[in-house]
């Protein structure tokens, strides 16, 4: 479903005539912001920003194109918020590299695999 | 009996044929705007002058004043959204106020201050725009163009020429000049034309005048744009 929303949003950014500011800049901003979330680079704040941007483009655009361009995002945000939430980056700490895999060689060389040879990288819940 | 509209609860008289912004200006009420100029045909593209008329958003510079209108202009919501529209203009082009020779005389900058804009809020586009320094006396820096079409209208309606036009669509919109080479030097623009002076940003500049008025003594250094704009437009 997000693919359809994304397709619509790209379509409107391409079709905007550029006469008025909210649509000319807004549809392109919507496109970039949605791409960010769909590509998995978004955080919870980005969804809030997306929602605000939708309202701005809808309420201030000169013609029907801008006034409806955000509708696919607005309606899916209202009815299927989990679609967006599932694409968000985890807010909790994510390690940049795999400590366990890095230690594996050392463990083999030292020939030990006891509990002390395993460091916890992320605090257990 | 004179006809009246109400702006933020104040009764404002108007004459038939006046737009909302004209009636407001005559009554000393400032509505933020960039693409509007009392001398030229209204355009209604910048959307900064958006007001709420009986529950609907309209551009005050194009919407005719009519009996019975209840208008919101200075509401918190409208000012916040106008600020975001200004931020959109800032991220769309490349506006570096501290290094721009128009700083202090720039309407875009002054409107941003008026709306208490403190950051650009949206991610920048970092658009690649050209500079046209071919003309001996006038410079175009496309980085700062906001497509208000004031130069287009001034050239056609005041100078009796047809030097400028807007071309392209959507985010790729751009200002063009009327010459086969696409260069300003091959047009009939002169530095005395109104079109060369009317730019509300630093996109069209007169050469060799950059810092003749030092920073600190410029139009908006000591006055807010609402006072400057009202004083200028009430005399028209």
Task: Outline the structure in words.
The complex is a heterodimer of chains A (125) and B (236). With 125 residues, chain A is mainly α. Chain A has helices at residues 2-15, 21-38, 44-60, 64-69, 71-79, 81-85, 99-110. In chain A, helix 2 (21-38) runs antiparallel to helix 3. Chain A is rod-shaped. The two termini of chain A are 33 Å apart. The model of chain A has no long low-confidence stretch (mean pLDDT 90). By secondary structure, chain B is of the alpha+beta class. Chain B has two domains: 3-74, Ubiquitin-like (UB roll) (Roll), CATH 3.10.20.740; 96-224, Alpha-Beta Plaits, CATH 3.30.70. Chain B is built from six helices and ten strands; from the N terminus they run E-E-H-E-E-E-H-H-E-E-H-E-E-E-H-H. Chain B has helices at 20-26, 76-92, 107-114, 150-157, 219-222, 225-234; strands at residues 3-7, 10-14, 50-53, 56-59, 70-72, 131-132, 138-141, 164-167, 174-177, 204-206. In chain B, the strands form three sheets. Chain B has a five-stranded mixed beta sheet, with helices on one face. In chain B, strands 6-7-10 form a three-stranded antiparallel beta sheet, with no helix packed on it. In chain B, strands 8-9 form a two-stranded antiparallel ribbon. Chain B is globular, with a radius of gyration of 18 Å. The A-B interface holds A 13-22, 24-29, 32, 53, 56, 59-62 and B 44-48, 50, 57, 59, 81, 84-85, 88-89, 91-92, 122-123, 125, 146-147, 168-173.
Pick out its properties.
heterodimer, A: 125 residues, mainly alpha, rod-shaped, B: 236 residues, alpha+beta, Ubiquitin-like (UB roll), Alpha-Beta Plaits, 2 domains, five-stranded mixed beta sheet, three-stranded antiparallel beta sheet, 6 helices
Low-confidence region ranges of chain A: none
- Average pLDDT for all residues of chain B: 96
Shape of chain A: rod-shaped
Task: State the oligomer.
Answer: heterodimer
CATH C-level class of the largest domain in chain B: Alpha Beta
Level-2 CATH architecture of the largest domain in chain B: 2-Layer Sandwich
H/E element sequence of chain B: EEHEEEHHEEHEEEHH
Poorly predicted runs of chain B are: none
Query: How many helices of chain A?
Result: 7
The chain pair with the largest interface is: A-B, 23 and 26 residues
Structure annotation, total helices of chain B: 6
Distance between the termini of chain A: 33 Å
Stated plainly, the CATH topology of the largest domain in chain B is called Alpha-Beta Plaits
**Spatial strand sequence of the major β-sheet of chain B:** 2-1-5-3-4
Look at the helices and sheets of chain B and give the structural class: alpha+beta
Number of domains of chain B: 2
Structural class of chain A: mainly alpha
């Amino acid at each position: 479903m997000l693919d359809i929303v994304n397709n619509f949003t790209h379509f409107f950014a391409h079709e905007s005539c550029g006469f008025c500011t909210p649509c000319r800049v807004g549809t392109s901003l919507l496109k970039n912001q949605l791409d960010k979330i769909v590509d998995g680079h978004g955080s919870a704040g980005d969804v809030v920003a997306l929602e605000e941007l939708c309202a701005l483009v809808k309420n201030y655009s000169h013609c029907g194109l801008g006034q409806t361009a955000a509708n696919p995002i607005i309606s899916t945000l209202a009815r299927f918020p989990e679609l967006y939430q599932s694409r968000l980056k985890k807010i909790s700490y994510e390690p940049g590299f795999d400590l366990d895999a890095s230690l594996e060689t050392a463990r083999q060389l030292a020939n030990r695999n006891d509990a002390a040879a395993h460091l916890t990288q992320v605090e257990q819940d | 009996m004179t006809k009246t509209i109400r702006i933020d609860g104040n009764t404002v008289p108007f004459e038939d044929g006046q737009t909302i912004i004209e009636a407001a200006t005559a009554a000393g009420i400032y509505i933020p705007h960039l693409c509007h100029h009392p001398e030229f045909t209204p355009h209604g593209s910048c959307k900064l002058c958006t007001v709420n008329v009986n529950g609907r958003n309209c551009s005050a510079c194009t919407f005719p004043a009519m009996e019975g209108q209840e208008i919101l202009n200075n509401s918190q919501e409208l000012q916040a959204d106008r600020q975001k529209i200004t931020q959109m203009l800032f991220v769309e082009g490349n506006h570096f106020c501290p290094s721009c020779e128009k700083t202090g005389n720039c309407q875009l900058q002054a409107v941003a201050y008026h709306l208490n804009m403190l950051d650009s809020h949206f991610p920048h586009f970092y658009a690649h725009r050209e500079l046209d320094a071919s003309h001996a006396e006038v410079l175009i820096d496309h980085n700062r163009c906001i497509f208000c079409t004031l130069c287009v209208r001034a050239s056609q309606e005041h100078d009796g020429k047809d030097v400028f036009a807007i071309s392209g669509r959507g985010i790729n919109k751009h200002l063009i000049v009327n010459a086969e080479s696409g260069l300003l030097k091959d047009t009939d623009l002169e530095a005395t034309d109104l079109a060369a002076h009317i730019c509300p940003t630093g996109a069209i500049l007169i050469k060799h005048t950059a810092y003749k008025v030092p920073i600190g003594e410029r139009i908006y250094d000591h006055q807010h744009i609402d006072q400057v704009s009202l004083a200028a437009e009430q005399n028209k």
